Amino acid sequence: MGKKDTITKNYMKENRIFADAFNYLLYNGQQMIEPEKLREIDTTEMAILQGGDQKHQDSETVQKYRDIMKKTVVKEDGEAVYLLLGVENQTDIHYAMPVRNMIYDALQYGKQVDETSRKNRKERKKKPHNRGEYLSGFYKEDRLIPVITFVIHFGADEWDGPMSIKEMMDPQDETLLEYIQDYRIHLIDSARLTEEELGKFRSSLREILSCVKYSKDKEKLKEYLHASSRIPDLDISANLVLKSIIGLPANMETGKEEFNMCKAIDDWIEEERNEGKSAN
Q1: What is the mean pLDDT of the chain?
Q2: Is the separation of the CB atoms in 169 and 182 below 8 Å?
Q3: Taking burial as the number of CB atoms within 10 A of a residue's CB, which of 115, 116, 216, 256 is the most buried?
Q4: What's the confidence (pLDDT) of residue 53?
Q5: Is residue 236 within 8 Å of 199, Cβ to Cβ?
């Protein structure tokens, strides 16, 4: 994992940032997911293939590692809805992202089936009603917890990778397409976000995504930074992400309290101008 990916991953792990991203994605910015109710869980996705029947000696264990995974409960219409939420951070475009995310989600569901089956067999609180329940260990009334994964792209270029499994295939006969299962990714792409959409973020994610959006135009970036009233109040972790993604010089010490992002950008632009004049 590269340095940028490590920095953005650590930033997105913060509950208030994680919740802000999902509230934008799922609830159009409404504060439905509460940071204090988020609980981080093991990002290792492991499942035993062969339909969860552990009696098969040729069962295969598959293991993958997500970036971030948390569990939470959301109140909708007075009822509690349990969710598993995953985030994949990308500073570069991943052209096989639909397959990657599909594997993560499938393994998580496989893990749930396996854990439920183990629990049913161990506790024996209820007996299987038929041979199918006996063999799988997963009973007719058992339920899965929904898994929602989204990709957040911290790159300045628009995401031009496929958004679904079918987009990764050559054109097919319409009859065949009806039988090919599709899987779409959910994406937050900074380059495509409008001003209205950016305004729906409540945390420093708004400023970070805005800066990434404008990072290819230094003058526009400078204009945004000076116009934003919240930039001076960004914490160290947010400043570190901006420094890493925008590509500010390494000698700009964002870890210090007196660090001023606006001044850093001004100095950076002025330095590049002077270098350009010297080159001419």
Answers
A1: 84
A2: no
A3: 116
A4: 47
A5: no
Which letter does DSSP use for residue 47 in this model?
E
Number of residues assigned to the chain: 280
Q: Which of 240, 186, 254, 245 is nearest to 213 (CA)?
A: 245
Contact 208, 237 (CB under 8 A): no
Give the chain's radius of gyration (CA, Å): 23
Please name the residue that has the structure tokens 């994680």: 18
Phi, psi for residue 88 in degrees, rounded to 5:
-115, 120
Q: Single out the residue of 101, 77, 73 nearest to residue 87, CA to CA.
A: 101
Whether the CA torsion 260, 261, 263, 267 is positive or negative: it is positive
Tokens of 183: 């899987």
Question: Is residue 129 classed exposed, middle or buried when 0-12, 13-18 and 19+ CB atoms within 10 A define those classes?
Answer: exposed
Would you call 40 helix, strand, or coil by DSSP?
A: strand
pTM here?
Answer: 0.83
pLDDT tens digits for range 8-28:
999 999 999 999 999 999 999
